[in-house]
Structure formats: structure tokens, C-alpha cells
Amino acid sequence: MRRILFAVFIFAGFAMAASATEEPEFETVASDGRIEVRQYEPIIVAETEVTGDMRAASGSGFRVLADYIFGNNTARSEIAMTAPVTRTRSTKIDMTAPVTRSMSDDGNWTVSFTMPSKWTMETLPVPNNPAVSIRVVPGELLATIRFSGAGRMETHRQKQAELEDWIAAHSYEITGPARYAGYDAPWKPSPLRRNEVLIPVEPTGPES
């Protein structure tokens, strides 16, 4: 029974993410079709490290973080969910495009929830589960590409490669690993789902 109830909470969380009114604030500094370069404001994230392929890691990481925001914290407080849920490869990899494109789906992942902007590091409840950590992500410049679909690993790889090619051609330099972001509930029709690949960058000169 507890598993059934928790599954209901998980699906409710996805629904909240899909209809969330709050997303991280950013300013679009460049736009080219489905690709944008955005300057993001600092945010606070709750995150956890998980192991496995992307699909399995996403599910297990989501459950751990959902448990935290649904009240498994020192204040027993519920925290509103925002979008997106992000997944980042935790293993260090060479930042050249061929290595990035051929990396395995298996490995260590960091799954993150963005905390609502009303919370601060001082007011956020402390997680009871030591697997959940809270940290501030400084403001950053991210190159992004948006696409629809079920968000399979193969599709993410293809979109990441496309975004990396765009970055190389437009006078930006990659400064960190790619993040895979999902904004919608799993039962939403695939063609209507919003997915993004986000890559930290910095400008290297005038755009070509």
C-alpha cells in the first residue's frame, strides 16, 4: 500500500513539474531556431547521485528527491516542485565532441530539482536522507537546444552533438558537462513533451 501511495505522489510530482508556474529565471542572449544561449540567475538545487542507465537513474533519483520535497526533511515541510528535472553525467569526460558523443549510457548521474525561489539556504528544510544534498548554483551562461519526444538517451546524444556543433561554430567554448532536462509528466504524449540539452559555455570572441 505504501508503494502504491508513493507512486501516486511520484506521478503527482511529474504533473506538478509539467504545469509548474515557476522555472529558473534567465535572459536569452542569442537565439537560432531551437537553439538559445541563456544567462541564468543563481538557483538552489536539491540533488542526489545515482548509478545506472539514464532511464533507471532518472527514476531512482526522482524518487529520492520527491521523498525530500514531500516532507522527508527536518521541518516535515512540503516544497513545491518546479521544472525542469535535470540529469547530468557525474563522471569526468573529455570535453571534445567525439568522446562526448560516444559515451556509454551507463554510469553515475546527478539528478536535480530546482528549489522554488522563495526559499533560501537558511530557510530550506534540511533533508533527513543523507543522499540528498542542497547547494547554490551560481549564475551561468548555458547553450540550450529544445526538442520533443520521449527523451531517449539516443535522442539526447544526437541533440547534444547538434548543440556542440553549433557552439563550436558560434565563438563559444564548452565549460562543463551537458545536462538533460525534462519538463513534462511521462503520460503526456511524446510529441508534446518538452526536453532540452543544456551545456555551460563562455564566449571566446565575436560570434561568427
Counting DSSP H or I runs of 4 or more residues, the number of helices is 4
State the distance separating the first and last CA atoms.
Answer: 59 Å
The mean pLDDT is: 83
Annotated CATH topology? Multidrug-efflux Transporter 1 Regulator Bmrr, Chain A
Secondary-structure class: alpha+beta
Organism: Henriciella barbarensis
Pfam families: SOUL (PF04832)
Keywords: Signal
Protein name: Heme-binding protein
Key terms for this structure?
signal; Multidrug-efflux Transporter 1 Regulator Bmrr, Chain A; alpha+beta; 4 helices; globular; 208 residues; disordered N terminus
Q: Secondary structure elements and their pairing?
A:
Layout lengths: L1 H18 L6 E7 L2 E6 L2 E9 L2 H16 L15 E5 L7 H6 L5 E7 L18 E5 L2 E8 L5 H17 L2 E3 L4 E4 L12 E9 L5
Antiparallel strand pairs: 1-2, 2-7, 3-5, 3-6, 4-5, 4-9, 7-10, 8-10, 9-10
Provide a descriptive summary of the structure in words.
- It comes from Henriciella barbarensis.
- Keywords: Signal.
- It holds the Pfam family SOUL.
- InterPro entries: Reg_factor_effector_dom_sf, SOUL_heme-bd.
- This is Heme-binding protein.
- The protein is α+β, with helices and mostly antiparallel strands and 208 residues long.
- The protein has one domain: Multidrug-efflux Transporter 1 Regulator Bmrr, Chain A (Alpha-Beta Barrel).
- Helix content is 27%, strand content 30%.
- The chain contains four helices and ten strands.
- The chain has helices spanning 2-19, 54-69, 97-102, 153-169; strands at residues 26-32, 35-40, 43-51, 85-89, 108-114, 133-137, 140-147, 172-174, 179-182, 195-203.
- Strands 1, 2, 3, 4, 5, 6, 7, 8, 9 and 10 form a ten-stranded antiparallel sheet that branches.
- A hairpin with a 2-residue loop joins β1 (26-32) and β2 (35-40).
- The chain is globular and about 50 Å long.
- The N and C termini lie far apart (59 Å).
- Mean pLDDT is 83; it is low at 1-18 and 91-104.
